[in-house]
Design goal:
The protein is α/β, with parallel strands linked by helices and about 500 residues long. It has two domains: about 170 residues, Reverse transcriptase/Diguanylate cyclase domain (Alpha-Beta Plaits, 2-Layer Sandwich), CATH 3.30.70; about 250 residues, EAL domain (TIM Barrel, Alpha-Beta Barrel). Helices cover about 50% and strands about 20% of the residues. The strands form four sheets. It has an eight-stranded mixed β-barrel with strand order 9-10-12-13-14-15-16-17, surrounded by five helices. Helix 9 packs parallel to helix 10. The protein is elongated. The chain starts with a helix and ends with a helix. The N terminus is likely disordered. The structure holds ligand C2E and calcium ion (2 copies). The site of one calcium ion has 4 residues, from loops.
Length: about 500
Amino acid sequence: MRYACSGLVIVSAAAQAQDAGASLPVISLLTSLLILAFIYLFKLKFDVSRLKKKLAAKKDNQLGFYSLHDDISGFPNKFFLQQQLDSLLKRAPEQCYSLLLIKISQFEQVNQLLGHSNSNLILAQIAQRINEQLHSADTALTFEFRQQRPIRLCHLGGVDFAIWLECTDKQHLAEFVADELERSVPEPMVVHGCAVEYQLHSGIANYPEHGTQLNELLERAYLALQHHSWLQGKSQVFSPDMLHFTSDKLTLMAELRQAIAEGQLTLYVQPQIDMHSREVLAGEVYVRWRHPSRGLMTPDSFLALAEETGVIYPLTQWVLKEAVATIAQLAQAQLVSKIAVNISSKDLLQDELIDTLEFLFDKYKVKPQQLMLELKEQALIAEPARAMSMMQRLHRLGVELALDDFGTGFSSLAYLRKLPIQHVKVDCSFISELHKSDMHSAITGAIIDMARNLDLGVIAEGVEEVEVEQKLLRMGCQRGQGFLYSRPFELSGFAVWLKQWQQANTK
Ligand code: C2E
Ligand code: CA
Ligand code: CA
């Protein structure tokens, strides 16, 4: 506009000069000036529009870049991954691949501590580290090159990343890559003088075994990641049994793991009595969970899940430690110092059970004979040979073994003979109805006779009434436990209870 106005001024000046009868050279000078002005104006207009076009193209490029890249880290995003997969799978649909999902954990603290813009910088740096680590992973899909370095990491958004790996004849390649990343990437970063710590967790889903669509594979890899990071011993590869877990159950298990570490678990105890002499022979401990919002939880609400998810191992270790420490305290107070602990079938498959026990006996100066382990028949069903070998090792160590819930399973006499056990426990369900049901009476009688023939002790659980106690004594079973003597109570009160019982029952 500014230039166009000056053009008009020049035109009107030329006209005035003609009116004044100016000479020819003046006119031609003015005409040349006019032409020059037009050329100048035209060029200027051309430059501006070229500049505009250039800017628009740059903007388009930027838009193109950000539609395929994450705007925080600059790494390829999910659309980019999808695009690449579409063409890859078209070219080689029969090939198998692994989708490796990586999540940065504990990043919320980084956000809180450093604010969003700083933590975005850190996020970009971590992404860079992961990508660097993938430098030698040639089977990982390369999205693009930057400064001649391959970009193999996709930023799904937030703290989630993905890598697409071609399967080779090398077994467990994706797990290997995942373990390497989990182990070597998370070095603490120093920001404003603070060390920022974080961890990586991974989950893997395989194409086409676990799904053929990217979203399906991602969902399954997420599930595997949750299992792997929340539940001990779970591989990071998806398996269909993971689909049975609701996130509620997973949360509960993650909380249980934390509860063990934070001391929310507690032990209750129930005395085992010589029904004839009224002597206390032992105390059986039962675990309880003081959940911050669900209240006091009994084992039936979390044990099966704990077994399924591997949380049972740290739980049993905790129970054993508490039990052995209690044995030592009771012995010091010259009270009954035998404790029975329930162990799960899964525990029997853990080689370290022996080491744990040896360590505890040594630490608390307790004799193995002061500990009784109760295990159920199911413990022997899944892997009989391994379970039996562990029972033999426990027996050699010197701990007493009892077969729990006896009568509810299928153990035959011949089988029972092979087990290195010292006691059978007749299940509550037979005992509580003993005085009312001929059938329960007959079964209990048969178990007692059989046990006697095999030189095994019999413990009756669930003794609630005097009639039951008397009937058991008549049948030849002397050892019992149940509400008749005491409901389970907190283990910390056992010493006081024992003293009171002794006082009340000394003849
Ligand atoms: P169990 O070993 O057969 O324990 C007996 C269950 O019956 C206990 O339930 C006990 O509180 C209850 N009980 C005791 N006396 C009576 C009675 O007179 N009448 C009736 N009706 N019930 C009685 P609890 O504490 O809920 O434990 C249930 C099961 O959970 C136990 O069955 C045991 O298999 C398991 N368990 C408990 N604590 C642990 C533990 O620390 N580790 C493992 N692996 N399992 C445990
Ligand atoms: Ca038991
Ligand atoms: Ca039972």
